[in-house]
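retry 2 of 3: previous attempt timed out while embedding adenosine-5'-triphosphate. Reduced batch size to 1 and resubmitted. Inputs unchanged:
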Amino acid sequence: MAHVELNDLVKEFDDVTAVDGVSLDIPDESFTVLVGPSGCGKTTTLRLIAGLERATDGEIRIGDEVVNDQRAYERDIAMVFQNYALYPHKTVRENMRFGLEQHDTPEDTITQRVTEAAELLQINDLLDRRPSELSGGQQQRVALGRAIVRDPAVFLMDEPLSNLDAKLRVQMRAELNKLHEELSTTTVYVTHDQVEAMTLADQIAVMDDGQIQQVGEPTYVYTNPRNMFVAGFLGSPSMNFIEGTLEESGGKFELNLGTDTHDVPDEFIDQLEGHLGERVVLGIRPENIALNQDGVPSNVHPATVQVVEPQGEKTVLELNLDTGETIKAAVDPDTTVEMGDSVNLRFDRDSLQYFDPKTGRSLTHEPKPERKAAV
Ligand code: ATP
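retry 2 succeeded.
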């Protein structure tokens, strides 16, 4: 096993800079997830680590070695792809053996590793079938098995679950978690699915436009986003952003929203006082909005219910604030509201975030020693 380190990594394709100065520390035995929207450079970063692309600039270390000049097969990694990439004419057993045979592994080691991996993945019964005789979930297990038998220092996984249906994806996600607990192999996993990222990762790196926006433990990044991009990307429905002008009134700070006012809790005064008179964005997650909290003196905002969307474990409401802005709240499924109802919203004061709309940066982000900040 090994840690992986990316230092100022750059990859240019003609006029596209796919990876734009990425620095990231991937600790030994960690499960690190690169997450971000389509085209943000996740796959290219993974392919650079794999040796399938050559870096334009920067350094890639696996263990103590700089591997920039090593070919893919010389790097101690195994890759799992979205499309499984199994050999159609080979059986499951032959698919799993193939990589080891290429590396001249002794026969008894091959047999032992294939047997162990097949047991771990519960595909012992499928060893003599061909990929076309397997379901998508089984094919993905074989692809994982082929990586596991290699016993590499690092697993690289590129959206391995995205071809599976929703139910199977959730099941395989749990299995990947278990597998990682069992094997502890350093894993770098690429996905655009933020739920997958949050549930699998012990370290998440949120990417946008070829750059890492924030790195850290998933819950920390979720509750302490460094900027509006990260705040908006993680979470479904997304964080609400409400813009106003920051003003002072009788020693208190408030955000003038036009026809409504948001009282800023006193604990943010130090962080926000340099922005008095400026436009500031309030960020509040849908799950941190409560309805009809009578008798609460501050942070009650009148709104009208536009859409009621029951989702089982929660109900998502689309609400029009008196200011004209539309926001979403995720409330208890027992909540009885209908379209057109007037409600009062209370924003949980412990969950408020404030951002600078010019730069997108959080004004209230609480820095925590991260494994390695990239920006
Ligand atoms: P997705 O989730 O859609 O796979 P991604 O975040 O993995 O996206 P990349 O595939 O790394 O993104 O692509 C990053 C950028 O680099 C994109 O603009 C893409 O078009 C470009 N790119 C990737 N590979 C190549 C290539 N071989 N030649 C030219 N441009 C490329």
